[in-house]
Amino acid sequence: MANTLRHVAREAGLSVAVVGRALGKYGSVSDEARKRALKAARKIGYEPNMVARSLRKKITHQIGIIIPDIRNPNFTEVVRGVEDAAIEHGYSLMLCNSDENKDKENLYLFGLYTRRMDGLILCPTEGTYNKYLNKIIEGNFPVVIYDREIDGIRAPQLVLDNEGGTQQAVNLFVRLGHRRIAFINLSSSVSPFRDRFEGYKTGLNENGIPFDPELVRHVRLQQEEICQLIRELVNMRNSPTALIVAENLLVTEVLLALKKYKIKVPTRIAIIGFGESRWCPLTDPPLTTVSIPAYSIGKMLCETLLRRMKELSKDPRGAQDLCEKIVIPMKLAIRESHGEKLT
């Protein structure tokens, strides 16, 4: 039978109330009583019932995060940043992977909410209205949205400057003398991929380069489809000399296709990818990317969620109007795959 506060109190020669305050770190307790309670608890091997304590205080010291693809190194690095920051503040983290599936996402939303998580970080599968998500937010459940913006949601959002990051990639290629710049994007309606496409078009326009739809491909993450589009691009009459690949996992498939057809980078076609991975410096040549500071973003997400939790606990009504949108700047990680200036 497990020891209880009553056993600790008997061993320490104190009342149950005093022992409860001493071990629970609340209320007024003398230093001497606290020392006696801690010593008695250690002696008899007392362990507090954290589940019961959580139910009483309505705090579990657990937060959840739902990401759309655990294979993507940018998301896993974000999760690491969230976890490290959470542990620093005394919280543990529950990770859920939605697989870009809305039904699975809703299942996790329901599970984390009903399991009394203290808050949630969500990278949504769709940047559209979600009735269930809105319901739990309106019920003052702390939520922070990451990466994929949802219009009108009453929650803080941290998004990347995807448009500006893509413009930087276009500008670099233009400075190197490229005019035929291709763009490969995922077939997706979520905001990051829309914004990257807009950044590509804006970058061309600002540099006086006409937009050519023949140089744009929106694809699924399938090797056969990507191999086919690479063949099409390099065999065009006026083929591109530069290529922007707008997603991390997509970059790996493109590099495999280029290797398969023995297309040299950057001499035959220069490349800039999107998002950092540990393997980027290891490719031949090392990959230039539009860098995402994923680990720092993860820590920022956790800090934002903890701040949101405090706001809602102090003033639920007022906090509903404090829905900040934080735009995170991006910059190029210059290596070698973008090539040298054309002659």
Ordered list of secondary-structure elements with their pairings:
Elements (H helix, E strand, L loop, with lengths): L4 H8 L3 H9 L6 H14 L5 H8 L4 E6 L5 H16 L3 E6 L4 H13 L4 E4 L8 H8 L4 E4 L10 E4 L1 H14 L5 E6 L4 H16 L9 E4 L3 H12 L7 E4 L2 H13 L9 E5 L13 E4 L2 H21 L1 H4 L5 E4 L2 E3 L10
Helix pairs in contact: 1-2, 1-3, 2-3, 5-12, 8-9, 10-11
Descriptive keywords:
12 strands, Rossmann fold, 3 domains, 343 residues, six-stranded parallel β-sheet, alpha/beta, six-stranded mixed β-sheet, 434 Repressor (Amino-terminal Domain), 16% strand
What's the gist of this structure?
The chain is of the alpha/beta class.
- Strand order in space, largest sheet: 2-1-3-4-5-11
Q: Work out the helicity level.
A: 40-55%
Share of β-strand residues: 15-25%
The overall pLDDT average reads 90
CATH class of the largest domain: Alpha Beta
Q: Got a strand count?
A: 12
Overall radius of gyration? 26 Å
What is the CATH topology descriptor of the largest domain?
Rossmann fold
Q: How would you sum up the major sheet? A: 6 strands, parallel
Put simply, the count of helices is 13
Q: What general outline do the C-alpha atoms trace? A: elongated
Q: What is the multimeric organization of the chains shown?
A: single chain
Order of helices and strands: HHHHEHEHEHEEHEHEHEHEEHHEE
- The CATH homologous superfamily of the largest domain is named Response regulator
Instruction: Count up the domains.
Output: 3
Distance between the termini: 82 Å
CATH architecture verdict of the largest domain: 3-Layer(aba) Sandwich
Uncertain residue ranges: none
